[in-house]
Amino acid sequence: MLKQRLDTDEQQLKRLAICDFGGLTAATMPYGRLEPLALMAKFHAVLFSLDDGVCDESEVTPDLLAQETSRIMRAVEAPAARAPGDSPHTAALRRLRLELERFASPVQVRRLTEAMRVYTSGLVWEASWRRNAELPSLDDYITLWMRAIGMAPSTAMIEVVGGFSVAEDAMQDSRVRALTEITWTLVSWDNDLYSRNKELLRAGDNLNLIDVLCQEQDCGPRHALVRAVAMRDRVMVLFDRLAAQVLKEADAGLRQYVNGLGQFVRGHLDWASLCPRYSVPSGPKATPGGWWKQQPSDNSLEPLPIPTIAWWWDQLEVAR
After folding, report:
1. Which are the contacts of 138, defined by CB distance < 8 A and separation ≥ 6?
2. How far apart are the C-alpha atoms of 115 and 258, rounded to whole Å?
3. Are 313 and 238 in contact (CB under 8 A)?
4. Has this prediction a pTM greater than 0.85?
């Protein structure tokens, strides 16, 4: 990241350099093989740099971001077609896409490419809201953020890093697709709980689950925080129940993938609880595992009243 000068702002480089992206990779994918793990850590470094330096804190417009993400996607789709005007992030992702071919099957390369398309489309959507004086609805925000958080490429890399493969019909099973989206959403909400103070302090940014809930429910941040945790707990309960249902009939590859989804949720929590990226001068110091509760604040198996994700609970109908 430093060698390729992904950021020109020295303060930003210093902030990114202490984020321990290797630690994030190790915590979320401890089953991985060394070389693909190193590749994943590079992906994390580039995507976090892209998020901070280009998307969140640079006042980028949606049209400029659409142009940049289109170039990124072309580099991922056809990495051999080098362009002289590549930005540092596009050039870095082009190299990583070429390196991916050492470890991934053609199907896995395609899955990563499609995952990058999900991610980059979310970035443009996010940028449009950052230029808007209003906040999106809760339904729109959840759809936006599960895409823009960058989790689609991360979950697409689980089988590459682990050295296994998942059959296409298994990956397209509606229960598995739900588990994948749930993972994106849990990590995106956990990120909001950790990063809100940082975003308000550094970017004056209130595009966050807490603030969206304040708008949706006409309440203050303290009440919205309680509601966000309850929503998060209910989705986590759903994940546990649905994963258990899928694992009963899963083959080895699918079993590793589903377990990898759960590991990503837990590993991200452990990493984020200590990551200096989310520290603010007045913030409390967290201890990994020191704030877990024995029971969820909401263990209902009823769908949350949010249309974009209500279909997840439909996958439990057989088990009810």
Report:
1. 212, 213, 216, 306
2. 17
3. yes
4. yes
